[in-house]
Amino acid sequence: MNLAKCQAILEAARWKFAKTMKRWPHFHTHTRDWEDSELLRDCARFIRETCPVEFFKDNPKWPRHYLRIGGWTYWSMDDDVADVHLINRERTDPAERVVPDEHL
């Protein structure tokens, strides 16, 4: 896995708005929506191995690795890649983080 391949895989994924988290507008993709769920875990592993650690929503209890590319920020919440079933993404620019009209 390299950056270009990870980006292409993530850009081609099916993303669903996280409607229960409207205060933090973001999307997720789940292994059940992938023909090959190991590709999702490969992306999660790539993010974990190559991207810097930051704190999820500035909470020091939740260190996460973040990939910022193509105007999006990607992360997973699981501590072990084997447990990853989804990857989240949000717009990197906070001004672009809006709730889609169909979820207002």
Summarize the structure in short.
The protein is of the alpha+beta class. The chain has 2 helices and 7 strands, in the order αββαβββββ.
Notes on the protein architecture:
This protein has a 5-stranded antiparallel beta sheet. Strands 3-4 form a two-stranded antiparallel sheet. The chain has 2 helices and 7 strands; from the N terminus they run αββαβββββ. The protein has helices at 3-12, 37-50, and strands at 16-17, 27-30, 53-55, 63-65, 67-69, 72-75, 86-91. Helix 1 packs across helix 2. The chain has one domain (3-94). The radius of gyration is 13 Å and the shape is globular. The protein is an alpha+beta fold.
Mean pLDDT: 90
Regions with pLDDT < 50 over 5+ consecutive residues? none
Class computed from helices, strands and strand pairing: alpha+beta
Order of helices and strands: HEEHEEEEE
Total count of helical runs of at least 4 residues = 2
Query: Any idea what the radius of gyration is?
Result: 13 Å
What is the general shape?
A: globular
**How many distinct folded domains?**
1
Q: Which sheet architecture does the biggest sheet show?
A: 5 strands, antiparallel
Compute the number of strand runs: 7
The end-to-end span amounts to 37 Å
| Proportion of beta-strand residues | 15-25%
Give the neighbour order of strands across the main sheet: 1-2-7-6-5
Q: Which bin fits the share of residues in helices?
A: 10-25%
Keywords:
single chain; 104 residues; two-stranded antiparallel ribbon; 7 strands; five-stranded antiparallel beta sheet; 2 helices; alpha+beta
